[in-house]
Design brief:
Elements (H helix, E strand, L loop, with lengths): L4 H9 L5 H10 L2 H16 L2 E5 L1 E5 L27 H13 L4 E5 L8 H14 L4 E4 L2 H11 L3 H11 L3 E2 L9 H7 L6 H13 L3 E8 L5 H18 L2 E8 L14 H14 L10 H4 L1 H7 L6 E4 L18 H10 L3 E4 L9
Parallel strand pairs: 1-8, 1-9, 2-3, 3-4, 5-6, 6-7
Helix pairs in contact: 2-10, 2-11, 3-11, 5-7, 6-9, 7-9, 9-10
Amino acid sequence: MTLPSALLHKLEQHERLTPDDALTLFRDGDLLTLGRFARELNEEKNGAVIGYVVDRNLNYTNVCVLRCKFCAFRRDKGHAESWELSFSEIDQKIEELLQIGGTQILMQGGHHPDFKLDYYTSMVRHIKEMFPQITIHAFSPPELHHVAHVCKLSYHELLSALKEAGLDSIPGGGAEILDDGMRQEISSGKCKSAQWLEIFETAHNLGIQGSATMMFGHKESYEQRVEHLRLLRELQDRTGGFFAFIPWTYVPGNSPMGGKQVGSHDYLKTLAICRIFLDNIKNIQISWLTQGIQVAQVATQFGGNDMGSTLLEENVVRSTGSPHHTSVAEIKRVVGEMGKVARQRDTFYNYLN
């Protein structure tokens, strides 16, 4: 279908879209038209550079009291396949990362029933003392909500303690879709949408930046995707604390929820709409881990300006059976083939070298 002339004018003039405009793009937008507008906007913000970070997803435990329907990673406490990393195991993993020029650890785990605040602050402080050059990008809002609840702390008290210990930034995991009905259906027990947003607003006000995410392609509607984006854009208007947005697709694989994975058309269209609608977030990350490197290569022309991590280690998505891997050499190759330049960055999207 042809988009309304008023909406086309907004796109051509790079004007801010309303949620209704975004819903129209999801329903009626042509993939290549959306790609063109998203590409133009991205080039205005980021030129021809595609970033990547050399890091490691360091999951400190897979023990979790929740039973999210899409998760193949979590295990009950005492399960034969459950584990908790010791500080010495964490040190070894970071040393391996440093040997390949890594700069960041993305640290997340399950909602462990026994870990209290002192566990998290001790772990962060230990890492900072041993490896001051490493950025600690750690603890998604649902994890933080869980710790605050267990320890009877306010979000401000919890985040202040973690910042004092050395926490640098927060990943946006656990957002899934910011709609409480959907969250109750697929991830019952996780923090509510308003709590996810409050945790990030509190962090931003304390000077702790982070990334935002959206997991789509499971049971959500277009309306719910748009509402998710609206909530993020409004928070970013207030705080400016998100340095990136990462939309990624649900991977059924071994997940208890089952279902089918959305194809590249839906992924690329959604990526483009995210770039257009989220006009106040500079960096939009491409998900090669869930879509594969070939789709990721195309995504550089649909508004994405970052390939994320080379992932020396990643356990959560790969526990579903996702087969995708990449390397710095491959990222440089596929980016170069699209007429762009791949550059290593740090956690805060500052380019290195």
